[in-house]
Amino acid sequence: MKKQLVTSSVFRFIERIIVVVTSLLLTPFLIEVLGQQDYGLWILIISVLGWFNVIDLGFSTAVQRYIVLALESDDHKKVNVIFSTAFALFGALGLFAASCLLILAQFPELFGVDENTAPTLLIALSVLSMKVFWDFLMNSFHGIFSGLLRFDIDANLSSLNAISKALLVFYLVTEFNIYGAIFATLAADFLTNILKVFFAKRLYKNLKFSVKDVSAKELKSLFSFSKHVLAGGVAQTLNSKVDPILVTRLFDLSTVAIYSIASRLTGHIQAFVSSVTGIFGPVFTKMVARDENMAQIFTRIASINTFSATALFLPLLIFGGVFIRLWVGDEFESSIYILNILVFSFMCKAVSTAVRNVLLAQANHKLISIVNLLGAIFNIGLSIILSQYWGVLGVASGTAIGFFISDVVLSLVLLNHYNDFRLIPIIKCFCISIIIVFGLGLTGQYFVDLYMQRTWWSLVVYSVCSFPMIVLVCWFSLLDKGLRAKLVNLLKVKIQSKRAKTRS
User: Fold this and answer.
1) What is the pLDDT of residues 386-404, one digit of tens each?
2) At what angle do helices 76-105 and 216-250 cross, to 10 degrees?
3) What pLDDT was estimated at residue 141?
4) H or E stretch at 239
5) Largest alpha-carbon pair distance within the chain?
6) CB 16 within 8 A of CB 273
7) Number of H helices and number of E strands within the chain?
8) Prediction pTM value
9) Which of 81, 215, 225, 463 could bond to 62 as cystine, CB 3.0-4.6 Å?
């Protein structure tokens, strides 16, 4: 299992590199070709699509959990019953979500766009309703990949999706504007979805869909688990997707473009962190199936989450300002201040990710929705209030406070409610990470802006040279001696295994 986790983590990390590189290349291209106004519209369109993930009603999490449990019991019939039920369910939910998007597209004025932009938004959302339907169907197959800990396959297909989409965008956007980006998105998704079906079947040869296997009893069981995930999913979507819509309503599409530069950079780094932390959910579920104590492993995984977030967000804070100026120009300089605030928001998720994985594995997730909903309420309310005083920085500040309340304070309270895990090590680790990130980060940002030449070559040299030192600081500050030893031994085993394969 450890070998699969390491392999999956490596491929997920490579996937994120590919996704980030293609995104970084595309963003200045899209801003130049579309203009700041239409680029802001494209960001709004992508954000609206993300809202419809809520309609999966938490079933994707439930399906993954039940498939893991069925695979652990080696029950092929049970796996197919869950898969068939999930496929039929997600097909129905996908049709419902796509229909809702089609209806919503008829009222573009709800999103705060002007009458000149409204027709483009209407057409874009209508066409992309197909993507929403496909995405729902694919949730059934993700359960197989995660159940068998084969995140590497999912990661490789995601990499293919990013590359093919980027190539199509470069080719089509110049001639077809936003519509070129829409077609590129649909074409890339269609290709990778076909491959997902092929590899899921190849990976688990007994996998098949049968109408006879669609079970009302299984559906009821899935709903019993997922009903408490639903409100949490709504709240999480509010937290992560509401900012572009708030900025559009409070300001304009040009400001959305400025905000999205900071939001996308922090989102990319969070995705890198998730490539490491996101593989631990099935591990907790397997431990529950075996009735194993999770106290120690939880503390260590939470430390790994915090270590990963600190080691990756600290370089962003130090070099983010120079990068933004080189990447999209001085006209986006205000994005730097937004980025500094949003970094804190995503640092908070290092704590909540581990807590959420444990509680979902234990089926103690009933109150997660309340926690997330309270965070979303604080996020939206404070963003609106603070925007009146600090403008777009107020929106970012409201987001940061909302994340801290839900992802740190209330998540730890909830964990303590269901488990007797020691919280002091988690709190200590989080506080140290914040001191490191903002103490070294803002200091480094000041000296980089003051002394470093603003060239790509200087940025690469300084960041490459500083990263090993950052990792060392985080390694000794955030990981205990026993965990460091285990990680080193695991790395040694992996290297020896690679060498053995090479010799043979």
Assistant:
1) 999 899 999 999 999 989 9
2) 30
3) 77
4) helix 216-250
5) 69
6) no
7) 18, 0
8) 0.72
9) 225
Torsional class of 291: left (φ above 0), alpha (ψ -120 to 50), beta (otherwise): left
Q: Is the pLDDT confidence value at 489 over 70?
A: yes
Cα(222)–Cα(69) distance, integer angstroms: 13
Residue 331 DSSP symbol: G
What pLDDT does 442 receive? 94
Burial bucket for residue 368 (CB in 10 Å: 0-12, 13-18, 19+): buried
Instruction: Answer yes or no: are the C-beta atoms of 155 and 15 closer than 8 Å.
Output: yes
Spatial distance between the Cα atoms of 276 and 221, rounded to a whole number of angstroms? 30
3-state helix, strand, coil in the chain (%, to 5): 90, 0, 10
Which single residue is written with the structure tokens 């400001």? 255
In sequence order, what DSSP letters do the residues of 81-112 get, joined into one string? HHHHHHHHHHHHHHHHHHHHHHHHHT-GGGGT
Q: Which two tokens stand for residue 3?
A: 């070998």
Write the DSSP symbol of residue 493.
H
Residue of 108, 140, 115, 154 whose CA lies nearest to 4: 154
Residue range 157-178, pLDDT digits in tens: 888 888 999 999 988 998 888 8
Q: Would you state the pLDDT for residue 493?
A: 65
**pLDDT value at position 113?**
77
Q: Are 82 and 67 in contact (CB under 8 A)?
A: yes
Predicted confidence at residue 212, as pLDDT, reads: 80
**Beta-carbon contacts of residue 324 (< 8 Å; ≥ 6 apart):** 261, 262, 265, 332, 333, 335, 336, 339
Structure-block tokens of residue 499: 């060498």
Q: Averaged over 139-151, what is the pLDDT?
A: 70
329: alpha, beta or left? (left if phi > 0; alpha if psi -120 to 50) = left
Helices 281-289 & 129-147 angle (0-180, nearest 10) = 50
Amino acid in position 6: V
Cα–Cα–Cα angle for 144, 358, 57, nearest 5°? 55
d(CA 181, CA 166): 9
Distance CA 298, CA 305 (A): 10
